[in-house]
């Protein structure tokens, strides 16, 4: 889904409406959004997981907009029932950011020290906390979404 207000961490009414209409159609188990250039929440609506905005995983750095350099990777674990129908069994996510010190690169910023070693620890921790707050702001954790590497 390509929608949302740029640089805003909450989905707008259009994103929510479209996601719910798609979910209500029962044709989707997972909806993934892009366009806001910042991380937005993950929630479960009915039987459908909605990732409103994955932020940026590859971007031109914009130091004036911190969230523009942050993103998430999503891992949807799928399962197939006896009738052959697929569904999302589990949904996990990991935070990331682009850094330019000393060179331009993509970094995983999960709380695990091995994953965070490509960015300064304080910067990675602040980014990870900001992303976690956005991802979890619409109750996805209560429905089972989990961060990877926590």
Describe the model:
The longest helix has 15 residues, at 121-135. It contains 4 helices and 7 strands. The strands form 2 sheets. Strands 4, 5, 6 and 7 form a 4-stranded mixed sheet that branches. Strands 1-3-2 form a 3-stranded mixed sheet. The protein is globular and about 50 Å long. A hairpin with a 5-residue loop joins β5 and β6 (105-108). The chain has 150 residues and is an alpha/beta fold. The mean pLDDT is 88. Belongs to the CapA family. Residues 1-58 form the Capsule synthesis protein CapA domain. Pfam families: PGA_cap.
Structural features:
Capsule synthesis protein CapA domain-containing protein, 23% helix, alpha/beta, CW_Biosynth-Accessory, Capsule_synth_CapA
Query: How many individual β-strands?
Result: 7
Determine Rg (CA atoms, Å). Answer: 16 Å
Helix/strand-derived category reads alpha/beta
Order of helices and strands: HEEEEEEHHHE
Q: Name the poorly predicted regions.
A: none
The biggest sheet amounts to: 4 strands, mixed
Strand content: 25-35%
Query: How widely separated are the two ends?
Result: 28 Å
- Helix-residue proportion: 10-25%
Shape field: globular
Average pLDDT for all residues: 88
The oligomeric state is: single chain
- Supply the number of helical segments: 4
């Amino acid at each position: 889904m390509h929608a949302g207000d740029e640089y805003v961490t909450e989905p707008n009414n259009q994103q929510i409406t479209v996601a719910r209409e798609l979910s209500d159609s029962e044709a989707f188990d997972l909806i993934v959004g892009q366009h806001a250039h910042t991380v937005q929440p993950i929630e479960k609506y009915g039987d459908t997981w909605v990732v409103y905005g994955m932020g940026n995983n590859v971007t031109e750095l914009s130091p004036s907009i911190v969230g523009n350099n942050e993103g998430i990777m999503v891992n949807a674990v799928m399962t197939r029932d006896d009738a052959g129908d697929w569904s999302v069994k589990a949904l996990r996510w990991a935070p990331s950011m682009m850094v330019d010190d000393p060179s331009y690169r993509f970094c995983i910023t999960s709380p695990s020290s091995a994953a965070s070693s490509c960015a300064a620890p304080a910067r990675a921790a602040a980014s990870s906390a900001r992303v976690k707050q956005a991802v979890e702001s619409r109750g996805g954790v209560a429905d089972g979404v989990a961060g990877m590497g926590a």
